Amino acid sequence: MNETQLSIMEALHTQPAVDSKEEIQKRKQFLKDYLIQSGANGYVLGISGGQDSTLAGKLTQLAINELNEEQPGTSFEFHAVRLPHGEQKDEADARDAVQFIQPTKTHTVNIKPAVDASAQTFKDAVGEPISDFLKGNTKARERMKVQYDLGAHFGCLVIGTDHSAEAVTGFYTKFGDGACDLTPLFGLTKRQGKQLLQELGAPEHLYTKAPTADLEDDQPGLPDEQALGMTYDQIDDYLEGKKIDTVVAARLEERYQKTEHKRQLPANIFDKWWKN
Ligand SMILES: Nc1ncnc2c1ncn2[C@@H]1O[C@H](COP(=O)(O)OP(=O)(O)OC[C@H]2O[C@@H]([n+]3cccc(C(=O)O)c3)[C@H](O)[C@@H]2O)[C@@H](O)[C@H]1O
Ligand SMILES: Nc1ncnc2c1ncn2[C@@H]1O[C@H](COP(=O)(O)OP(=O)(O)OP(=O)(O)O)[C@@H](O)[C@H]1O
Ligand SMILES: [Mg+2]
Question: Where do the annotations place deamido-NAD(+) binding (predicted)?
């Protein structure tokens, strides 16, 4: 293992292997401790029907249930939010995820009218349409906005689904799905997330399906692995300290370096991280 791989593993807190029961317990405890310390009423999270929000949502609901059982008279809440852009191709998976999570409350907000309005005002101002790729980021930021509106309304904090296989590539929208109050999955690789879902008894199709950001109108359900040009197995192997193809490793390290700005607070005159 070279020095870069080791330093990335350390920065992203990854481990070669995890014990499912122990990880579930640790992450539930974090969600419980953080909520009590914050004084908030509960949590909010967008449920897409994909692996990450199914896992983060389930851990959150379990934490909320435990708090309400341990502290009689309390009524902490988890607000699961369905956030389709018009009609969602894998709508059934989103419904299955909600069914598995059994959230305290479920809301559905169609983000399409807001995204369309943004695209139209952009075009009116600039005189050219926003690209399909950039509109994808608008969708992610609109979802963030809805979650923060609900969070503020109900006095709840916003959960993020960032984990280490996503953090290393910076494969998320800055201040979109990257914006949140806490990230209970951080430190896990994609396959370790699957391992936890298996332990939690999640429907198998929710963690065996191809991960997708599903942000582009022109490429619905585009698999992350296709967009990234590398597989989650390769990313996970790297993060778990294994040797991977040197060309892929170099591309991964380049992505990591180029996306450092997403893992830091906005740079100020006292910061030096951006000089590396
Ligand atoms: N060096 C630097 N220092 C400080 N800021 C810097 C910067 N370079 C760019 N930036 C800023 O960052 C912006 C680009 O970042 P960003 O807006 O995130 O955009 P970008 O990284 O170009 O695109 C987001 C990528 O994440 C993927 N994604 C998004 C959402 C969810 C998922 C998923 O897996 O579910 C995946 C999406 O498919 C796309 O490939 C620039 O417009 C600029 O404002
Ligand atoms: N259609 C959607 N409805 C609700 N929330 C969404 C939707 N799309 C994205 N999100 C939110 O944005 C987050 C980031 O999306 P991402 O694709 O990385 O995760 P995922 O869909 O949960 O899992 P996977 O990586 O397996 O697709 C999701 O975890 C979810 O909270
Ligand atoms: Mg997804």
Answer: 141, 174, 181, 261-262
Residue nearest (by alpha carbon) to ligand 1 atom 7: 261
Q: In whole angstroms, what is the distance from residue 50 CA to residue 12 CA?
A: 22
Q: What is the pLDDT of residues 195-243, one digit of tens each?
A: 999 999 999 999 999 999 999 999 999 999 999 999 999 999 999 999 9
3-class SS at 194? helix
Residue 48 annotated as binding site? yes
**CA–CA dist 213, 29 (Å, integer):** 29
ipTM over 0.95: yes
Q: Which atom of ligand 1 is the closest one to the Cα of 176?
A: 30
> Which ligand places an atom closest to the C-alpha of 47?
2
Tell me the CA distances in angstroms from 3 to 14, 97, 170, 235, 250, one per residue in order.
15, 39, 20, 17, 13
Which residue, 108, 109, 107, 112, is CA-closest to 86? Answer: 112
Q: What token pair was written down for 55?
A: 């896992």
For ligand 1, the distance from its centroid to the CA atom of residue 152, given in whole angstroms, is 25
Question: Which strands, in side-by-side order, build the sheet including 105-108?
Answer: 105-108, 77-82, 42-46, 156-158
Is 52 assigned a catalytic role? Answer: yes
